[in-house]
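Thread: Newbie trying to understand structure tokens

Hi all, I'm a second-year student working on a class project, and my supervisor (Dr. K.) asked me to get a predicted structure for one chain before our next meeting. I've only ever worked with sequences, so writing a 3D structure as a token string is new to me. If someone could post the tokens and maybe explain what I'm looking at, I'd be very grateful. Here's the chain:
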Amino acid sequence: MGYKEGMDEMWHDITFVSERDIPDLSKLFGPASCIIKSKLDKRAYPQAERSGKFSIIFTKIPQLAKDPLDGRKVYLNWRGLLYVNNDEGVSTLSQNEISSLTQVPEEACSEGLHLTPPVILYVIIRDSLCVVEELILAAEEELMAFESLSLSRLPPKFLPAVSKMRKETGIIISWLIHLKEVLTRIEAQNVQLQEWGEEDHARFKGLLDRCSYLNDAASNSSDNLSDLIDFYINSTSFQMNRVMKVLAVMTALTIFPVVVGGLLGTNILGNPWEITLAQLVTLVVMAMMATGWTYYKLGWLR
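---
Reply by user tm_fold:
Sure, no problem. This is what the structure looks like when written as tokens:
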């Protein structure tokens, strides 16, 4: 467990928190350490609640990472972050180091914002929404690129790539839904932050609106990705059906020559009827044409 106190006197960043650090955390946060322990679980979702004099907010911080096989493609790494606020200031706890936190004081200063507990949380969540928005835009651009290609020009790994994009988008949608609930509780002052003011109310209202917008955008992107996957599977199945129909027609047409060839290979001397080879070939061709016409009327050859 490591401490970073250089960012601001009232803000302490605690990184690399593990199970063995819980006794030390109980000395700092008292009974609230039990909640901290449960929220540091990687499976936890964004949540805000009050425990005694502590306001505890858990969220996941997205970080963009490039695909090592294709630098044009990006994906998200999620880092759990616990934000704890009381009369003594702000503490942020994480199991991994989150590099974007070091930029929060500089960003607040550049915007003329005093580094208060609400401002710290506002900048953290705003930056997270920016990262998510960038990935949603990248997914939409990738989707438009795929839609502009014909089925034969799609890359070999098209289906796994689109499926991965849809999975990433689904994770984003879930995160936005829970984050929206957290922002609603903060804006309604159900979870109180020290030094809260009217400007903070307006800022978090803006975050809430942006969260709703990104949720709609991510949902639309997910639906479009699902439609693209369905179109690809249906088109592939349709082409396969056409191939199977052609094979079925070819099989039906070749039955007649095979049967006749088998008959001609037998001893037919002394048959009570007379038929020449030309007549036999004519009958075979007429039977094949009739069979082909039947399949054409059924739509198999169109």
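A couple of things are worth pointing out once you decode it. The CA atoms of residues 48 and 182 lie 6 Å apart. The chain has two domains: 2-237, 238-297. Feel free to ask follow-ups in this thread.
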